[in-house]
Protein: Aminotransferase class V-fold PLP-dependent enzyme
Amino acid sequence: MSHPRDLFHVPAENGAYLLAHSVGCQPRAAAAALDTDMLAPWRQAGGDAWPLWLETIDGFREQVAALLGVEPASVAPQTSVSAALFTLLSGLSLAPGKNVVLLSEQSFPTIGFVLAPLARLGLTPRFIPAHEDPSDPATWERHCDGAVAAVIAMHVHSNTGLVAPLAEIAALARRHGAVSIVDTAQSAGILPLSPTRWGVDAVIGSCVKWLCGGPGAGYLHIRETLIPALAPLDVGWFSHENPFAFDIRDFRYAPDARRFQGGTPSVAPFALAAQGIRTILSIGQEQILANNHACIAAFEDECRQSLGWSNRGGTLCLACDDPQALSQILKTADYAHDFRGNVLRASFHAWNTEEQARTLARFVKQAGMVITPAR
Structure:
Protein backbone atom coordinates (compact mmCIF):
# COMPACT_ATOMS: atom_id res chain seq x y z
CA MET A 1 0.00 0.00 0.00
CA SER A 2 1.59 3.28 -1.09
CA HIS A 3 -1.10 5.51 0.48
CA PRO A 4 -4.20 4.94 2.64
CA ARG A 5 -6.17 6.22 -0.35
CA ASP A 6 -5.43 2.88 -2.02
CA LEU A 7 -7.69 1.14 0.52
CA PHE A 8 -10.78 2.95 -0.76
CA HIS A 9 -12.85 3.49 -3.86
CA VAL A 10 -12.67 7.30 -3.98
CA PRO A 11 -15.23 9.22 -6.06
CA ALA A 12 -14.26 12.59 -7.53
CA GLU A 13 -11.02 11.13 -8.89
CA ASN A 14 -10.22 14.35 -10.79
CA GLY A 15 -10.98 16.57 -7.82
CA ALA A 16 -11.36 15.82 -4.14
CA TYR A 17 -13.89 13.86 -2.09
CA LEU A 18 -14.64 15.96 1.02
CA LEU A 19 -17.83 14.28 2.28
CA ALA A 20 -16.62 11.92 5.01
CA HIS A 21 -19.01 13.72 7.35
CA SER A 22 -21.88 12.49 5.14
CA VAL A 23 -20.89 9.18 3.51
CA GLY A 24 -17.40 7.76 3.83
CA CYS A 25 -15.71 6.14 0.85
CA GLN A 26 -16.26 2.43 0.27
CA PRO A 27 -13.32 0.28 1.40
CA ARG A 28 -11.92 -1.86 -1.39
CA ALA A 29 -12.28 -4.86 0.93
CA ALA A 30 -16.01 -4.25 1.47
CA ALA A 31 -17.26 -6.37 -1.45
CA ALA A 32 -15.20 -9.39 -0.38
CA ALA A 33 -16.35 -8.98 3.24
CA LEU A 34 -19.98 -8.87 2.12
CA ASP A 35 -19.53 -12.04 0.12
CA THR A 36 -17.59 -13.90 2.82
CA ASP A 37 -19.73 -12.88 5.77
CA MET A 38 -23.21 -12.72 4.26
CA LEU A 39 -23.59 -13.94 0.67
CA ALA A 40 -21.39 -17.05 0.68
CA PRO A 41 -23.04 -18.63 3.76
CA TRP A 42 -26.44 -17.94 2.21
CA ARG A 43 -25.33 -19.33 -1.15
CA GLN A 44 -23.76 -22.43 0.32
CA ALA A 45 -25.90 -23.24 3.34
CA GLY A 46 -29.30 -21.61 2.91
CA GLY A 47 -31.15 -21.75 6.22
CA ASP A 48 -28.11 -23.27 7.89
CA ALA A 49 -26.25 -20.01 7.32
CA TRP A 50 -27.57 -18.53 10.57
CA PRO A 51 -24.71 -19.66 12.83
CA LEU A 52 -22.24 -17.95 10.48
CA TRP A 53 -24.44 -14.88 10.14
CA LEU A 54 -24.65 -14.56 13.92
CA GLU A 55 -20.87 -14.75 14.03
CA THR A 56 -20.88 -11.76 11.67
CA ILE A 57 -23.12 -9.84 14.08
CA ASP A 58 -20.82 -10.74 16.97
CA GLY A 59 -17.86 -9.65 14.86
CA PHE A 60 -19.48 -6.25 14.40
CA ARG A 61 -19.97 -5.94 18.15
CA GLU A 62 -16.29 -6.76 18.65
CA GLN A 63 -15.19 -4.12 16.14
CA VAL A 64 -17.32 -1.44 17.78
CA ALA A 65 -16.00 -2.51 21.19
CA ALA A 66 -12.43 -2.14 19.92
CA LEU A 67 -13.28 1.31 18.55
CA LEU A 68 -14.75 2.45 21.87
CA GLY A 69 -12.38 0.60 24.19
CA VAL A 70 -15.21 -1.32 25.89
CA GLU A 71 -16.37 -4.93 26.21
CA PRO A 72 -18.44 -6.47 23.38
CA ALA A 73 -21.12 -7.42 25.92
CA SER A 74 -21.88 -3.71 26.33
CA VAL A 75 -22.57 -3.19 22.60
CA ALA A 76 -25.80 -3.79 20.70
CA PRO A 77 -26.09 -3.46 16.91
CA GLN A 78 -28.71 -0.95 15.77
CA THR A 79 -30.11 0.08 12.40
CA SER A 80 -29.53 3.80 13.04
CA VAL A 81 -28.80 6.46 15.63
CA SER A 82 -32.54 7.11 15.87
CA ALA A 83 -33.28 3.46 16.65
CA ALA A 84 -30.51 3.33 19.24
CA LEU A 85 -31.77 6.44 21.01
CA PHE A 86 -35.40 5.33 21.00
CA THR A 87 -34.74 1.89 22.45
CA LEU A 88 -32.43 3.37 25.09
CA LEU A 89 -34.80 6.11 26.25
CA SER A 90 -37.76 3.74 26.20
CA GLY A 91 -35.98 1.64 28.79
CA LEU A 92 -35.64 4.37 31.41
CA SER A 93 -37.57 4.05 34.64
CA LEU A 94 -38.80 7.55 35.42
CA ALA A 95 -39.11 8.79 38.98
CA PRO A 96 -41.91 11.28 39.79
CA GLY A 97 -40.95 14.77 38.70
CA LYS A 98 -37.88 13.49 36.84
CA ASN A 99 -38.80 13.23 33.17
CA VAL A 100 -36.81 15.90 31.28
CA VAL A 101 -34.36 15.11 28.46
CA LEU A 102 -31.81 17.88 28.02
CA LEU A 103 -30.28 18.56 24.58
CA SER A 104 -29.01 21.43 22.47
CA GLU A 105 -30.93 22.86 19.54
CA GLN A 106 -27.64 22.39 17.68
CA SER A 107 -28.12 18.61 17.91
CA PHE A 108 -28.80 16.70 14.71
CA PRO A 109 -32.59 16.98 14.14
CA THR A 110 -33.27 13.23 14.40
CA ILE A 111 -32.51 13.48 18.12
CA GLY A 112 -35.44 15.84 18.61
CA PHE A 113 -37.65 13.81 16.29
CA VAL A 114 -37.12 10.69 18.41
CA LEU A 115 -38.13 12.60 21.53
CA ALA A 116 -41.45 13.83 20.11
CA PRO A 117 -43.41 10.53 20.32
CA LEU A 118 -41.67 9.60 23.57
CA ALA A 119 -43.86 12.25 25.18
CA ARG A 120 -46.41 9.42 25.39
CA LEU A 121 -44.09 7.80 27.92
CA GLY A 122 -43.84 11.02 29.89
CA LEU A 123 -40.49 12.28 28.57
CA THR A 124 -40.23 16.01 27.94
CA PRO A 125 -37.44 17.64 25.91
CA ARG A 126 -35.68 20.72 27.21
CA PHE A 127 -33.80 22.48 24.43
CA ILE A 128 -30.71 24.57 25.04
CA PRO A 129 -31.15 27.51 22.60
CA ALA A 130 -29.04 27.27 19.45
CA HIS A 131 -27.27 30.58 20.19
CA GLU A 132 -25.77 29.13 23.40
CA ASP A 133 -22.39 27.46 22.93
CA PRO A 134 -22.68 23.65 23.42
CA SER A 135 -18.89 23.41 23.74
CA ASP A 136 -18.98 25.46 26.97
CA PRO A 137 -19.61 23.43 30.17
CA ALA A 138 -21.34 26.46 31.69
CA THR A 139 -24.04 26.20 29.02
CA TRP A 140 -25.04 22.75 30.21
CA GLU A 141 -24.74 23.77 33.87
CA ARG A 142 -27.30 26.54 33.37
CA HIS A 143 -29.94 24.19 32.00
CA CYS A 144 -29.51 21.02 34.07
CA ASP A 145 -31.39 20.41 37.30
CA GLY A 146 -33.05 17.67 39.32
CA ALA A 147 -35.89 17.25 36.82
CA VAL A 148 -33.48 16.00 34.15
CA ALA A 149 -33.60 12.24 33.58
CA ALA A 150 -31.22 12.13 30.61
CA VAL A 151 -28.71 14.42 28.91
CA ILE A 152 -27.91 13.95 25.22
CA ALA A 153 -24.75 15.55 23.84
CA MET A 154 -23.29 15.52 20.34
CA HIS A 155 -19.59 14.68 20.55
CA VAL A 156 -19.17 16.78 17.39
CA HIS A 157 -21.92 19.09 16.13
CA SER A 158 -22.57 18.50 12.45
CA ASN A 159 -23.10 22.10 11.33
CA THR A 160 -20.34 23.79 13.34
CA GLY A 161 -17.77 21.12 14.19
CA LEU A 162 -17.89 22.19 17.85
CA VAL A 163 -16.84 19.48 20.32
CA ALA A 164 -18.89 19.02 23.48
CA PRO A 165 -17.15 18.84 26.91
CA LEU A 166 -18.20 15.24 27.50
CA ALA A 167 -16.45 14.57 30.80
CA GLU A 168 -17.96 17.72 32.32
CA ILE A 169 -21.42 16.88 30.94
CA ALA A 170 -21.20 13.32 32.30
CA ALA A 171 -20.19 14.60 35.74
CA LEU A 172 -23.04 17.13 35.68
CA ALA A 173 -25.54 14.42 34.78
CA ARG A 174 -24.29 12.20 37.61
CA ARG A 175 -24.70 15.00 40.13
CA HIS A 176 -28.35 15.35 39.11
CA GLY A 177 -29.01 11.59 38.91
CA ALA A 178 -29.41 11.68 35.13
CA VAL A 179 -28.23 9.32 32.40
CA SER A 180 -25.60 10.77 30.05
CA ILE A 181 -25.78 9.86 26.35
CA VAL A 182 -23.28 10.79 23.63
CA ASP A 183 -23.95 10.79 19.89
CA THR A 184 -20.68 9.94 18.12
CA ALA A 185 -21.98 9.89 14.54
CA GLN A 186 -19.72 12.82 13.53
CA SER A 187 -16.67 11.78 15.55
CA ALA A 188 -16.28 7.98 15.30
CA GLY A 189 -13.40 7.25 12.97
CA ILE A 190 -11.71 10.64 13.25
CA LEU A 191 -11.58 11.62 16.96
CA PRO A 192 -10.50 9.37 19.86
CA LEU A 193 -13.48 7.78 21.61
CA SER A 194 -13.37 6.76 25.27
CA PRO A 195 -16.68 6.31 27.09
CA THR A 196 -14.80 5.09 30.17
CA ARG A 197 -12.57 8.17 30.35
CA TRP A 198 -15.51 10.48 29.67
CA GLY A 199 -17.58 8.74 32.35
CA VAL A 200 -20.71 8.64 30.17
CA ASP A 201 -23.48 6.09 30.53
CA ALA A 202 -24.26 5.42 26.86
CA VAL A 203 -22.89 5.99 23.37
CA ILE A 204 -24.88 5.92 20.14
CA GLY A 205 -23.46 6.20 16.64
CA SER A 206 -23.53 5.41 12.96
CA CYS A 207 -21.00 3.71 10.67
CA VAL A 208 -21.89 5.49 7.42
CA LYS A 209 -19.66 8.55 7.87
CA TRP A 210 -16.00 8.62 8.96
CA LEU A 211 -16.07 4.86 9.64
CA CYS A 212 -16.77 4.11 5.95
CA GLY A 213 -19.18 1.31 6.85
CA GLY A 214 -22.14 2.12 4.61
CA PRO A 215 -25.75 2.81 5.65
CA GLY A 216 -27.91 0.66 7.90
CA ALA A 217 -25.47 -0.10 10.70
CA GLY A 218 -25.52 1.81 13.95
CA TYR A 219 -24.50 0.92 17.48
CA LEU A 220 -25.48 1.38 21.09
CA HIS A 221 -23.04 1.06 23.97
CA ILE A 222 -24.35 0.98 27.53
CA ARG A 223 -22.25 1.14 30.68
CA GLU A 224 -22.42 -2.46 31.87
CA THR A 225 -23.47 -1.68 35.43
CA LEU A 226 -26.43 0.34 34.09
CA ILE A 227 -27.82 -2.37 31.80
CA PRO A 228 -29.87 -4.27 34.43
CA ALA A 229 -31.79 -1.07 35.29
CA LEU A 230 -32.99 -0.54 31.70
CA ALA A 231 -36.05 -2.30 30.25
CA PRO A 232 -36.41 -1.25 26.57
CA LEU A 233 -39.81 -1.44 24.89
CA ASP A 234 -38.50 -2.17 21.39
CA VAL A 235 -37.58 -5.82 21.79
CA GLY A 236 -37.57 -9.01 19.75
CA TRP A 237 -36.43 -12.56 20.09
CA PHE A 238 -32.76 -11.57 20.05
CA SER A 239 -33.44 -9.38 23.11
CA HIS A 240 -34.28 -12.57 25.01
CA GLU A 241 -31.98 -14.18 27.53
CA ASN A 242 -32.21 -17.32 25.37
CA PRO A 243 -33.39 -16.44 21.83
CA PHE A 244 -33.93 -20.10 21.05
CA ALA A 245 -36.14 -20.98 24.04
CA PHE A 246 -39.24 -20.35 21.87
CA ASP A 247 -41.69 -20.05 24.78
CA ILE A 248 -44.15 -17.32 23.74
CA ARG A 249 -45.31 -16.80 27.35
CA ASP A 250 -41.82 -16.34 28.79
CA PHE A 251 -39.83 -13.23 27.92
CA ARG A 252 -36.68 -12.48 29.91
CA TYR A 253 -34.29 -9.67 29.00
CA ALA A 254 -30.79 -10.70 27.98
CA PRO A 255 -28.38 -9.82 30.78
CA ASP A 256 -26.09 -7.78 28.54
CA ALA A 257 -26.59 -5.17 25.81
CA ARG A 258 -28.26 -7.76 23.59
CA ARG A 259 -31.51 -6.79 25.34
CA PHE A 260 -31.46 -3.75 23.02
CA GLN A 261 -30.89 -5.80 19.87
CA GLY A 262 -34.51 -6.48 18.94
CA GLY A 263 -35.66 -8.95 16.30
CA THR A 264 -33.98 -10.82 13.47
CA PRO A 265 -30.89 -8.80 12.51
CA SER A 266 -30.00 -7.54 9.06
CA VAL A 267 -26.67 -9.16 8.29
CA ALA A 268 -25.35 -7.30 5.24
CA PRO A 269 -25.07 -3.80 6.82
CA PHE A 270 -23.10 -5.19 9.76
CA ALA A 271 -20.79 -7.22 7.55
CA LEU A 272 -19.97 -4.04 5.61
CA ALA A 273 -19.71 -1.87 8.72
CA ALA A 274 -17.36 -4.29 10.47
CA GLN A 275 -15.06 -4.11 7.44
CA GLY A 276 -15.25 -0.33 7.47
CA ILE A 277 -14.13 -0.23 11.10
CA ARG A 278 -11.38 -2.78 10.43
CA THR A 279 -10.11 -0.60 7.59
CA ILE A 280 -10.07 2.53 9.74
CA LEU A 281 -8.32 0.76 12.62
CA SER A 282 -5.77 -0.78 10.23
CA ILE A 283 -4.76 2.71 9.08
CA GLY A 284 -4.85 4.01 12.63
CA GLN A 285 -7.15 6.74 13.85
CA GLU A 286 -4.12 8.71 15.01
CA GLN A 287 -2.76 8.75 11.46
CA ILE A 288 -6.14 9.76 10.01
CA LEU A 289 -6.49 12.58 12.54
CA ALA A 290 -2.91 13.74 11.94
CA ASN A 291 -3.59 13.93 8.20
CA ASN A 292 -6.83 15.81 8.90
CA HIS A 293 -4.97 18.35 11.04
CA ALA A 294 -2.26 18.73 8.41
CA CYS A 295 -4.86 19.39 5.72
CA ILE A 296 -6.66 21.97 7.86
CA ALA A 297 -3.32 23.65 8.61
CA ALA A 298 -2.54 23.73 4.87
CA PHE A 299 -5.96 25.28 4.19
CA GLU A 300 -5.33 27.95 6.84
CA ASP A 301 -1.86 28.63 5.48
CA GLU A 302 -3.14 29.05 1.92
CA CYS A 303 -5.94 31.33 3.17
CA ARG A 304 -3.48 33.18 5.41
CA GLN A 305 -6.10 32.96 8.12
CA SER A 306 -6.16 31.13 11.45
CA LEU A 307 -9.50 29.42 12.01
CA GLY A 308 -8.89 28.38 15.62
CA TRP A 309 -9.85 24.76 15.00
CA SER A 310 -8.46 23.34 18.26
CA ASN A 311 -11.84 22.41 19.76
CA ARG A 312 -13.54 21.23 16.57
CA GLY A 313 -14.10 17.93 14.81
CA GLY A 314 -12.70 16.81 11.48
CA THR A 315 -15.08 18.78 9.25
CA LEU A 316 -14.38 22.34 8.23
CA CYS A 317 -17.67 24.15 8.85
CA LEU A 318 -17.22 27.62 7.41
CA ALA A 319 -19.84 30.35 7.17
CA CYS A 320 -19.52 32.24 3.90
CA ASP A 321 -21.36 35.17 2.35
CA ASP A 322 -22.18 33.67 -1.08
CA PRO A 323 -22.53 29.88 -0.79
CA GLN A 324 -24.05 29.40 -4.24
CA ALA A 325 -21.11 31.03 -6.01
CA LEU A 326 -18.56 28.98 -4.08
CA SER A 327 -20.54 25.76 -4.54
CA GLN A 328 -20.61 26.25 -8.31
CA ILE A 329 -16.83 26.67 -8.43
CA LEU A 330 -16.34 23.51 -6.34
CA LYS A 331 -18.75 21.48 -8.43
CA THR A 332 -16.99 22.52 -11.64
CA ALA A 333 -13.69 21.38 -10.12
CA ASP A 334 -15.21 18.05 -8.97
CA TYR A 335 -14.69 18.91 -5.30
CA ALA A 336 -17.40 16.93 -3.50
CA HIS A 337 -18.79 19.02 -0.62
CA ASP A 338 -22.07 20.19 0.85
CA PHE A 339 -23.68 23.21 2.45
CA ARG A 340 -26.02 23.60 5.39
CA GLY A 341 -27.55 26.99 4.79
CA ASN A 342 -24.58 29.31 4.32
CA VAL A 343 -22.13 26.88 5.96
CA LEU A 344 -19.65 25.04 3.76
CA ARG A 345 -18.85 21.56 5.11
CA ALA A 346 -15.65 19.90 3.86
CA SER A 347 -13.96 16.91 5.51
CA PHE A 348 -10.38 15.69 5.13
CA HIS A 349 -10.01 11.92 5.58
CA ALA A 350 -7.20 9.45 4.94
CA TRP A 351 -7.64 9.73 1.16
CA ASN A 352 -7.20 13.51 1.09
CA THR A 353 -3.96 15.47 0.67
CA GLU A 354 -2.60 18.79 1.81
CA GLU A 355 -2.53 19.94 -1.81
CA GLN A 356 -6.27 19.30 -2.09
CA ALA A 357 -6.74 21.42 1.04
CA ARG A 358 -4.65 24.23 -0.49
CA THR A 359 -6.64 24.00 -3.72
CA LEU A 360 -9.88 24.28 -1.74
CA ALA A 361 -8.51 27.45 -0.14
CA ARG A 362 -7.62 28.85 -3.57
CA PHE A 363 -11.19 28.21 -4.72
CA VAL A 364 -12.46 30.13 -1.68
CA LYS A 365 -10.19 33.05 -2.59
CA GLN A 366 -11.21 32.81 -6.26
CA ALA A 367 -14.85 33.21 -5.19
CA GLY A 368 -13.90 36.27 -3.15
CA MET A 369 -15.38 34.66 -0.04
CA VAL A 370 -15.18 36.01 3.49
CA ILE A 371 -15.18 32.89 5.67
CA THR A 372 -15.50 32.44 9.42
CA PRO A 373 -15.86 29.30 11.57
CA ALA A 374 -19.54 28.46 11.94
CA ARG A 375 -21.05 29.00 15.38
Notes: The first helix runs from residue 30 to 45.
